[in-house]
Amino acid sequence: MKRVTIVAVGLLLAALMVSIACGPGATPTPSPSPTPTPTAPPTSEPLPDEIKIGILGPMKFSHGQHMMIGAQIAEEEINANGGVSVGGQKVPIKLVELDTNEFISLDDAAAAMTRGVTSDGCLALIGGIVGEAVIPMREIAMDNKAIYVVCGSNTPEVGEGVEEDYERYKYNFHTQSYIGDLAAGYYMPLWMEVAARAVREQLGVDTVRVALFGEQTEGLQVFIDELNNPHRYYDDWLNKLNLELVGTWQVSRVATDLTPELTALRAAKPHVVMQALTSPVGVAFGRQFTQLEIPAVTCGYNVEGNKKSFWEESGGAADYLSFSHFFVEGTALTPRTAPFLQKFEEKTGDWPAYTATAYSAVYIIAEGIERAGSLAPDAVVAGMEETDFTGPEGRYVFESNHRPKYGPDYLPHMIGQWRDGKVVPVWPDGKATTFEAVYEGSTVPGVRPIELPPWMIEYWKKQM
Asked: Which of 100, 160, 159, 161 shows the shortest CA–CA distance to 133?
């Protein structure tokens, strides 16, 4: 991070902050202090009694609830240290809960954003999951020059704007590394290759059959397009990885019975099924995929599957399901991981879903304010562009398009697999992937090989 040089006292303070900085090798503490930021000159602007940050999510669902709780943990830690330093004056953070109800009503989501930037007076807002809701919410935020950090949507349009029209969209940031084409073009080949590698090693097959199972959303279309014309990041990657696409399925976000779709999926005989599930339907998938003993291994993402309660909600039928995870119990990616997971579980009795990364978004906004020494939105944006923050899930450094950098040195990403009521990390496992040599030697504590479901092994050996 850029160090600002002021008077001698400022130099001593800066040196002290560097000495206590929270980096990847620091010792975890129960209540980590905010990552030290350079001291800004004193401000002459009038300051409010509190800095309001809106949390936008479907609060009747765990996605919004986990987002709010993650943000609250950051709020508590920052305010325990007196709040955010604005030009040398401490101002506490005040979170504003804004229920978007976006799984049910797109209009409700737009109304929540409007309320946040007008009557609630939020300087910045965090959240949004459903792309069709996030896009109009973003436009409302940009109209009002309100900082909007998206931490839950992978619709392509959500990741666009900053480079095309900087003056309008500079207030928009993202704390998710897999936005739209990045998810489809970069992560989908990686997820499928890791799963296909396990199939080849344990079943001895050559061509691995793959399928996609996701929701009826605009965001999923980018995945389907990529499968039909694989080229975004790695040209013709399906053929290069020797994968055969056998079909794609889309279901309602709130479906509770997937028997027809999963029966058709089973008949297509895939070895690997990539999930693209961000909403409550993920529970039904987890339960019925195993109950129907579909002879395949899973990959991709299932937000409901990230929760500890998923085991009970699936009726104990989650065994062998694997998908991406930001957090795995007992696996510390950074010094902040263990303290954060402990606090989250104390509050909820559950593990955090990916939306709990709102914790890091709160810190990123707070540090941007401290660098700016001001609450003027343009100044805070400039401060946020200098972000180098290590959160529970990894290190945040923004690209010029306000998306975070990804990979083992930044947001490393993990794949976890349910086994007997617990999730174990299965990737990164130290092996490079076909297109990403950077993962050679990269691993996480406690990593184990992917296990194929026993009914899958039995089924496919009979086919040989």
From this structure: 100
pLDDT one-digit tens code per residue, 192-201: 999 999 999 9
For the chain, helix, strand, coil in percent to 5 are 40, 20, 40
Say if CB 31 and CB 77 are below 8 A apart: yes
Rounded to whole angstroms, the Cα distance separating 25 from 17 reads 16
Confidence of residue 179 (pLDDT cuts 50, 70, 90): low
Phi, psi of 54 (to 5 degrees): -85, 140
Q: Do 181-330+413-463 and 46-179+333-396 fall under one CATH topology?
A: yes
Task: Residue 134: name the closest of 155, 161, 160, 165 by CA.
Answer: 155
pLDDT in tens, 332-343: 889 999 999 999
> If residue 427 lies in a helix (H) or strand (E), which one and from where to where?
strand 422-427
Q: Residue 40 corresponds to which amino acid? A: A
Domain chopping of the chain, boundaries: 46-179+333-396, 181-330+413-463
61: left (phi over 0), alpha (psi -120 to 50) or beta: beta
The single-letter code of the amino acid at 237 is: W
Bridge partners (DSSP) of residue 148 are: 125, 172
Q: Mean pLDDT, the chain, as a whole number? A: 87
Per CATH, is 46-179+333-396 categorized as 3.10.450.50?
A: no
Question: Residues 357, 393: contact at Cβ < 8 Å?
Answer: yes
Question: What CA–CA distance (Å, rounded) separates 126 from 120?
Answer: 14
Round to whole Å and give the CA distance between 122 and 113: 10
**What is the pTM assigned to this prediction?**
0.81
Superfamily of segment(s) 181-330+413-463: Response regulator (3.40.50.2300)
* Alpha carbons 148 and 140: distance in angstroms, whole number: 10
What are residue 51's DSSP bridge partners? Answer: 93
How far is the CA of 217 from the CAs of 63, 194, 212, in angstroms?
Answer: 17, 26, 14
- From residue 204, give the alpha-carbon distance in Å to each of 63, 111, 166, 456, 461: 39, 54, 51, 13, 10
Are the beta carbons of 387 and 101 closer than 8 angstroms? no
What does each C-alpha distance from 94 to 54, 77, 122, 366 come to in angstroms?
9, 12, 9, 12
| Rounded Cα distance, 112 and 340, in Å | 28
Whole-angstrom Cα distance, residue 42 to residue 45?
A: 9
Q: How far is CA 178 from CA 152, 181, 189, 260, 355, in A?
A: 9, 8, 13, 30, 13
User: Is the pLDDT reported for residue 26 higher than 80?
Assistant: no
